[in-house]
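Hi R.,

Here's the chain you asked about this morning:
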Amino acid sequence: MKFRKLLLLTLVLSLWGGTMLFADSASQKVRVIVNGGELDDAGIFTDGKTYLSARQVANSLQALVNWDDSSRKVTIYKPNVHMFLFQDSTIFGNVTKGNKITFKVFAQIDNLLTDISAVKVSIADPSGDEQTIQSKSVSIDKDNFWYRTDDYTYTFDKAGKYTINFYMKLAGSDDWKIVSEKTITAKS
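And here is the predicted structure, written out as tokens:
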């Protein structure tokens, strides 16, 4: 009796182990690199196809993701956002560390193929501390528009890269999604 139980247990464990080995060989995890950065949620390669997380890819490409539960459809939108930084009427991208500068951000947005409810512009210092420059609710009924912030005064205390971030909020969503970045370099 004990021998039968031991034989049955050995058979079950062997089948289970073989199934796991087959499943592992049938689908393999793959590393996914987008613009030089590796995605946290790796892709899966199975049956000659690679499957990726739509949200991870969209975040890497700075795109908007919309999930429609009723149709079980994911749609990724990548608007073109071009930002220009003006100090008075002069475009700039580099500053001297310690300078206090008043500037405004102009953004040209096109290829916007979905409805949004708000935009936000922020600045992040080299250590990643972020401050909102301006946010605004919008109701845009076209695929392109311009956005300009009010004058904003900021002191570039540290040497390094400062990032101007442009965010959008999809209509009906509470999540801000970054869709563009612009870098300012503060030199010593």
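One quick note: Residues 2-74 form one domain.

Cheers,
M.
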